[in-house]
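Summary for the steering committee. One of the milestones for this cycle was to obtain a three-dimensional model of the protein with zinc ion bound, which we needed before selecting residues for the alanine scan. The sequence and ligand used are listed below.
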Amino acid sequence: MTDHSSGPRRAPGELLRRLRLRHATDPVTHVERVPARAGEPVGWPGWAPEELRAAFARRGVTAPWRHQAEAAELAYAGSHVVVATGTASGKSLAYQLPALSTLLADPRATVLYLAPTKALAADQLRAVAGLELDGVRPATYDGDTPRAEREWIRRHSRFVLTNPDMLHHGILPGHAHWSGFLRRLAYVVVDECHTYRGVFGSHVAHVLRRLRRQCARFGRTPVFLLASATSGDPATAAGRLTGLPVTAVTEDTSPRGGVTFALWEPPLLPPTDSSVDADLVQVRRSALRETADLLADSVVEGVRTLAFVRSRRGAEVVAANARRSLDEAVPGLGERVAAYRAGYLREERRELERALLHGDLLGLASTNALELGVDLVGLDAVLICGWPGTRASLWQQAGRAGRSGDEALAVLVARDDPLDTYLVHHPEALFGRPVEATVLDPANPYVLAPQLACAAHESPLTPADLDLFGEGAKEAVDSLVEAGALRQRPTGWYWRHRERPEVDLRGEGGAPVCVVEESTGRLLGTVDGGSAHFLLHTGAVYLHQGVSYVVDSLDLADGCALVHAEEPDWSTHARDVTSLSVVSVRSYVDAGPVGLFLGEVDVTSQVVSYQRRRIATGEVIDTRPLDLPARELRTVAVWFTLSPGSLIAAGVEAADVPGALHAAEHAAIGLLPLMATCDRWDIGGLSTALHPDTEAPTVFVYDGHPGGAGFAERAYGTAVAWLRATRDAIVECGCETGCPSCVQSPKCGNGNNPLAKPEAVKVLDVVLANLAKVGGADPGGPGEDRGPAVGLEAGGPGAEAARGEALPRQGDRLTRPAQATGSPPA
Ligand SMILES: [Zn+2]
Ligand SMILES: [Zn+2]
């Protein structure tokens, strides 16, 4: 790698010391020296052919690490395996070793490799092709593969690299053309399998079952070899994804470089300096401002620094603020800082990366590590503005820093958010053993029915197939028959139409909305459909490359927002209202005065207005109504109820009950990502002192996706650990009456009113005490005595980046009476 550095290099400890010195009170809550680790090499397995060992040796691999050999042995012996270890721990070798050994030993065998992105598949193709093994003929097969080459690949390639979308749209519907390949399929490699989470993951789970079904028609049962980022319980997640029993290999024995990792909590503001925004009281300096200052300070030191910011808007703000303060210090220095995010066009992004690598830029603010080119590594420092959602994202971002042999600096700057606050005060949750699990729900009827339609189109469904597709399959098939999509015959269920069913694995966010400058017709970027209501409503202020635009109109039907350049001195904040009714109860825990439930609910939410706030002071200028359609959602929720008597006994006055529940709801939503790889915007909540369906004080937390995505289910399954972390986060926040770091929510539909912080703790204590009496509700979840921790995961293409700060599906207190359609537990 070329050394592009300009300016002096500083040891990470020294740079950190200088950054800390700029504050009156030390913002650093913890410094973790992640030490360099020597690797544990072992011998090659006896079955690995000499030709393959020689090929790996040419690449510089003289022996596998122990975890690679363990996974390879298991797979070679026919077990389905998931390797769940850290970034850059050599997971590729763990599947290449058994897969390529088999291809060399059996000249007919084939391997199918699945990556979540085309870029990763291309990367892996280079690696496998580079081994120059005779007769393997690796090839990528995706939407970009020229028609002319497709037939050659189907007939001759024995190592086909593709993605789940291509498997779903191309290979499985065309299985007749692939029969030669499928009847010889030995291994299915599922790389970065933690990215298959939520609704997308649930779809992929069924695509894999469809693949298994087509192989089974030829009597073939391929071995599944999965690679995952570190996470809680990877064997269960991989088992859900494939529908097979999977053994996990989780101990990382590869070597790594050292990182100095600092956890940074922005200081409390002096009271007079607080924002005057009545409903969202800022008590800490914002993470964006803090990150902008750290970025500027690092640039002044000549340190090439990458700042990761979760939201589109945030990256722009960080870059703009850093530029401004640098220009004040040294006119012209601000030009060496830029912003970068997913919505930019590809050429813009590659140009910015080149500039940072060559030192023309010293600071870059970006939204997501996955969007960055693979070459952008070896930076001196990485700033992470706000918890990036998962440990995998955290380490992927931190991993951009450090050249081989050099120590690197990484700083996690806490946002005003209950989870961030919890994490900077519980470093064991970041650096200890992960419990955060990759969650998906293949039983989601909104996923299962269309997937069964696809399967039936590929070949008629038989009663035996219903077992393969699992829980809910019979009901889904019945509903498809009723809807006229399938016809039942003595031999099975047949697809009735000529055309294939149209099912998009990633379509649930809605089509992206284009942002177009009206006067020039220029396309500025895109915003995903779900976020458009919040970010691109008429009157919204929208930032692009530091330039501010105001939205003139949003046309949801055309998927287009027209904007003009304008820099008003206010920002805009959309508000929504939500109502909820209980449809059915799936499972519940009767804990005396406390009830804990998992069930189906109907949620109606609508973006109804937006506030304009002065940028400088946060002062609310006005609230303006919006006329956007309501969005209806049937989904899965977890909820708890308390008897009014238990609240009185705990010292919660009747007048404080709504505020206590509301505060607990906000914090609980904020902490759920600790237990499951979800984004806080993947979930919503609603609390009320009396819900017509439960007839009790109730807090609901629901999946923000039709049919549920497994998040509420995970919350139910880990309720004790989840609610205990929620309680701790509230108790440990230094504020008096509640702030965005504990019980306030940035997207509260009720303006963060009412909120009762001390009473929220009492509510959670009542819930926890009563759940403890009945043994909790943690089937298979982490024990409550174990410190909760967070797993490693990477967000996935389009998952984190597309969501950004936007899908605020979080509703709030009941704003309309709900329909009492619930069926109470028997
Ligand atoms: Zn607080
Ligand atoms: Zn709220």
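Key point for the committee: The pocket of zinc ion (ligand 2) is lined by residues 662, 666, 745, 748, 750, 812 (CB under 6 Å).
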